[in-house]
Fold:
Amino acid sequence: MDHTACQGELDADVDKIIEAQNVSKWYGNFKALTDINLTVRKGERIVICGPSGSGKSTLIRCFNRLEAHQQGEIWVNGIRLHSKMRNVTEVRKNVGMVFQHFNLFPHMTVLMNCMAAPMWLRGMPKEEATDIAFKFLERVRIPEQADKYPAQLSGGQQQRVAIARSLCMEPAVMLFDEPTSALDPEMVAEVLETMTSLARDGMTMVCVTHEMGFARAVADRVIFMDRGHIVEEGNPHDFFTDPQHERTKVFLSQILRH
Structure:
């Protein structure tokens, strides 16, 4: 028996943070993802866009095993994800996830929300976790909110706390699942500014979003998905000025009108 296969086989190419090969996923009889091939390298910023129900969020949730794929291979930070793996926590330590609806612990202060994972998952001493938490609350420009509870913050502030919380684990890659879609329009800019700043600092990012201005400014590659397939991908200039697939053209004409 190959024990490495059960615990996660190591990928020799350390520059690859995420690699998906021929990945498919079903919900019952519904095929949500079909033969997805995608490589994310260290320092890359990838934006995934597409209509609702196209599989965007499902795909990135597979990257930290919040969803399980049934076919194909996924490697994250050198570990292969599969049904028998016992080290899902090891994968999630290296994958930051920012959700549409913040997912903060409502009974914890902002500071404790940021300290919890380093203390619980990494065994970090409280004093060190406090220092890390303040470092990243300052990074997203809200250290003065440390003693408040999530319900006392605006949506934009809560999302910045969620980003800080993920950064406290110092992940190899950050996944953003439509991080601005639940925000009022005036709060969108402050979250996008935070994300743009992370991108400038070289953070590896995969972001599901409809914010095409962000994609133009930040992405190394833009990927368009439809009905569980990757239909088209390219650098932002080519993607926006010369889309090749008719479905991409229709999507862009609709979304860029708004």
Remarks:
- The radius of gyration is 18 Å.
- DSSP finds ten helices and ten strands in the chain.
- The first helix runs from residue 3 to 7.
